[in-house]
Design goal:
Layout: H1 6-10, H2 14-52
């Protein structure tokens, strides 16, 4: 009676694993770079908008600076 070698079906070589790992790592690395660039652009836009119209931002996003200048 013939029997299927299930171990052969599930076995993979280390070369296949390494190639898949490298491909996934490259994809994730590229995504991280793109996300980082997008975040930097968004932060610049937010800072620009804040400088133009600070009243448009919610109060809990505004830091209140204290004037530490001493009177002479």
């Amino acid at each position: 009676m013939k029997k299927l070698d299930v171990k052969k079906i599930t076995a993979i070589s280390s070369d296949v694993v390494i190639a898949k790992y490298q491909a996934e790592y490259a994809k994730i690395f590229q995504q991280n770079i793109l996300l980082s660039a997008q975040i930097e652009n968004q932060q610049r836009i937010i800072e620009y908008l804040f400088n133009k119209a600070p009243e448009a931002f919610p109060d809990d996003y505004i830091l209140k600076e204290e004037n530490n200048v001493k009177n002479k």
